[in-house]
Every structure is written in structure tokens, then in C-alpha cells.
Amino acid sequence: MEQVIDIVLLAFMVVVALAMIHLRNLFAVVMLSGIFSLLSAALFVVMDAVDVAFTEAAVGAGISTVLMLGTLALTAREESPRPRRHALLPLAVVTVTGAALIYGTLDMPHFGDPDAPIHQHVAPRYIVDSPREVGPPNMVTSVLASYRGYDTLGETTVIFTAGMGVMVLLGGLRSRRRKRRDPASPGSDTGETRP
Known about the structure:
The chain is mainly alpha-helical.
């Protein structure tokens, strides 16, 4: 049953990705990217990675969608038309890369295999040593906050930087709108200053 749910979620993700590629309305593309993130969060839940699902839902479907909607205020709603041409070289590169990635997964252990190398050394060490080394009783918290602390800090920095970039862009938009409404404002091209 779990494999059926995985296949259905992956099929929905493929449909959403193909729809995003073909749409020209950028607002619809942003909404579909949020849906894609929610579908991948659901897939993570099915695979018992609830912490990753929570992060994907919060960052991918939440913050990223809000940032992209804020950026849409600065751009046109429709993608500008491009001349149609056949791109065989990019298609070949993508096909070869995809085939190499799939070939690389053939030697991987099966999903959930208790004899996988990670379950022989790393996972037991985290289970046994994390309460003593880190302190929090929740193992996921100790892994994300301590063992993968730099990774978590990097993810937080990326989100913070993206948010600040959108705020700067929106601030420039507000000042341009203010100048259009009130041409005699300080710093406008007329050279006049207000008292």
C-alpha cells in the first residue's frame, strides 16, 4: 500500500512539474511550486521523515512561496515569449546526466534496509551517544541542532538572505511608486526640496 501512495505522489509531482514548465502565467507557476513542495512534504511523511517534511512544508511551500509572490510584484505576470527552437544539446545533456544518476543508484541499499551501512555505524552511535553528548531527549533535535548544526545554520542563512533580498527589492519598488505619485519629493529629478 505504501508503494502505491509513493507512486501516486510521485505521479502528481511529475504532472505539477510539467505544468510549471509549460505555463506562461508566473502567478500560476508560483502556486504550482507551492503545491509541488506540499506534495514532496507528503512524500517525506510517507517515508517516515516527518522532520524533513516539516522543513519542506515550512520553507518550500511557505516561505519560498511568499518570497516568490513578493518578487512577482516587481515583474510582469506573464513570461515574455521566446522564439521556438529545438534544443537537442540540452536534452542530450539532461538525458545523459539522468541516466548517470539512475545508474549510480543501482548499487545503493534498498530503502529501509536494516543491513544498510548507515545502520551499522552512524545510526546506532547517534541513538546511544546523543543523550550524553548533546543533551536533548529528542534524537532529531540533537542531530539537527548539534551533529548537523552547520548545515542547519547554512539553511537558515540562505532563507534569511533571500528574505532580505526581497525586502530590499520591495523597498525600491515602494520608493519608485512614491516618486511617481509625488514628483516634488526630496531626491526627485526636479531638484526642488520640500521644507
